[in-house]
Each structure stands twice: as structure tokens, then as C-alpha cells.
Design a protein that fits this description.
alpha+beta; Gyrase A, domain 2; Elongation Factor Tu (Ef-tu), domain 3; six-stranded antiparallel β-barrel; 9 helices; 25 strands; 17% helix; 31% strand; globular; methyltransferase activity; GcvT/YgfZ_C; transit peptide
Length: 441
Amino acid sequence: MKQSAFHVHRLETYSVFFVSEMITTVSVPTCLIPRNVSWPLFQPLSILSKPQNAAFLSYSHHHHKNNLISCSISDFDLSPPPIDHDFLDTVKSSGAEVSREGIIQTFHNDDEALNAVHNGVAVVDLSHFGRIRVSGEDRIQFLHNQSTANFECLQAGQGCDTVFVTPTARTIDIAHAWVMKNAITLVVSPETCGAIIEMLNKYIFFADKVEIQDITKQTSLFVLVGPKSNQVMENLNLGDLVGKPYGTHQHFNVDKQPVTIGVGNILSEDGFSLLMSPSAAPSVWEAILTEGAIPMGSNAWNKLRVIRGRPAPGMELTKEFNVLEAGLWNSISLNKGCYKGQETISRLITYQGIKQRLWGLHLSAAAEPGSVITVDGKKVGKLTSYTSGIKQSEHYGLGYIKKQAASEGDNVIVGDNINGTLVQFPFLSQQHPPSSTTTTP
């Protein structure tokens, strides 16, 4: 049997309480403690805000054949300080092209990576995406009221997609949420992270026990995409999550580092997402590549987003379109109480007020986003995104079209004279508008 590059076990739990002017609950990196060594030698003094603070520990443990006790985090609450550019230096040395903002743009293998999505597995560094930690006793009720999903029905270890909208249900962004024991972690688009944090802080009232933290720079995020993702997980001794529902996540210890792994990869309910400290990123990345995954840069990822049909901020998710026109039904609860945008959403459904919807398009040639879409010479919509495919003859687009103007399989004209055929791209086809008898989570 193949020996995995990872040494993995499920995490046990503990809490650390620091005594200072304020009492705070945090988590610290996994450590392996020999039985004959006393705990004080391993106190995480490097992350204490004041050296005189005392640390108190309660922990659970299990035995290993190497006679060690494993102490681990219950939540991805706090990572160690990042090692500057360590992971980026690693990928640069292998030929990757990295932007000034630290985004891996390409490994100069874009076509190979896109092929792997269909026939194998690709791994993508999405560490530039925003990650927000929502903690405090009122966190569940707070996010329940501020976004479209029903958080009150979720337990620790579960997750969902939710949408942040304006009071008139115009779409700001889709967030993927992991409900952990002590916090909720949100993954959002890089363009919206700051605005969402500002918006959430604005709605925290004096008595609310809620804290919002931007943990983007304290963490790294990889995703696996492709039909062989499950096999990679099995080979790395991470198969506990294979076959579990979308959003399910668990905490693991991988090569002595805490890693949270969840089902789904932002574009799809298949694949996996891996959240870790930046110091763990190089070894985790290398282990995934060892299992045959093809590295993918952001250029190919952005192509894949359009081909899969996931709407993005600034393109399909703007103040011009509402959440129902974007077709984000799987992220909306219709039977929970009042929340921001709920009144508008209910009215649109009750009075059948959805006037346009988002479609995928197969195009005959390259087209500019913003181009007018027409049927029989009449304007019926607008192209919002475009990308080429692997083959020169492949052209894909996303666009909003008036509800009664065309349906799946119909032909439209984009711009001056580009033919387009309406199709259901995978992300859009998986969104299920609820029937009158359907209950929405």
C-alpha cells in the first residue's frame, strides 16, 4: 500500500485562556508533547500579547504508537505568524508567475490544468480570497439576520453558502460558511472582503456579543477541483470527508500542523477546500502535487469560473441585479424570520417579479463584457463575463436576459454579430428554485 506523504489524525480539543485586562479564548498550533516533558516548557508564549500573562490549559488526548500525546485546536481560531513569502518563493522557484499582490497568476500550464478539472485533479491557491472570522455568543443569530441562509439549523462541523445583499436584495457577494465550535469562518471574494467586514461591523449593536476579524493574512486556502479529488484525499489519509454533504468540515493535524478541510471548492459541491496557517502551506502543497494534482493559477481559475457559471462581484453580482435574478436559490432560506433583503425577496417571489435571469452562453467568437444581447433586433439583456476555452473554437459567456425573451437552447446575438446559444452551466444548473412544498435550509 502506498505510504502517504501526510501524517494525519483527527484533532482533539482544548482551550487556552490568557489572563490580562481582557480574557480571550484562542487556539494555538498543534504541538506534540512527549509524556515525560512537563507542559510549561511548551506554553505558547510567543503569541501572548503581554509576556507577564499566564496561560491555563485544559485538554483531552489520545495515545499514539510513538508514545506521544496530541494536543490540538478545536477551531481554526488563530494561526501562527505567517512566514513572509515562504510559499510564494516555493512556487516561484518552480516557474510560477506571481503578481505584485501575491496572487499566483499562472504556472504556464493553463490548458493542462483545465484538462485536469475534467479528467484528473487540479489544486489552486486561493489565499487571496477573503476569510472572515465571526465569533462571540451571538454569532449565529447575527449572521442569520445579516445574510440569506438559515444559520440556526446548522451544527458545528456543517457549512453552507449564504449571500450578502443590500436592503433591496441587490447582491454583494456569495460567502461560503463553515460553522465551527467557537466561530464561523466565511470565505468571500477578494474584492468584497473589506466592504463586507465594514458592513457587518456597522450592524453590530451595543449589546451584541459579536466580533468580526479579517484572518486572510493569517491563513492560507487551497482548493481541489476534478473527479480524482476523492482519490487524492484517500491517498493522504483524509478520506473521512469523502461522500459527506457540501460544507461538512473537520479539523486535522497534518505533519504537526492544524488544517481544516471542507467538502466543496467554491465553484462546485464536489472537491475540497483546505484552510491552514501559511507556515503549513508549502508542505501541504507539495504533498498534494505528489499525489498527481496539477497546479492551477488564477488565470485558469478565472476561466473555470465562467465555464462553470459561478457569478462574481463586479460582473454578475452588482447593484444592478438582485439575488433571485442571479439564481442563487441554494443560498436562500424562504422560511426563516426577518433578515436583510427578506422583504424584497418575498415580494419578488409572491408577485412573480423576477424579470430577468442569469444564463450561460456558448459563443461563436470572443465578445466584450457589457455587450448588448438581442433577439430579433430587440435588446433583451447584457453580457457580463467572457472567456475562451482550451480550444481556439471554444468561447463562453455569462449574461442576464429578460425572462420571457429566450429559454435554454435558444439563439441570441451578442454585440454586433456574435451568435450565442443559451445553456445551463453547472453552477447555475445546480441551483434549485423551491416549489410550494419545498422547505429551504
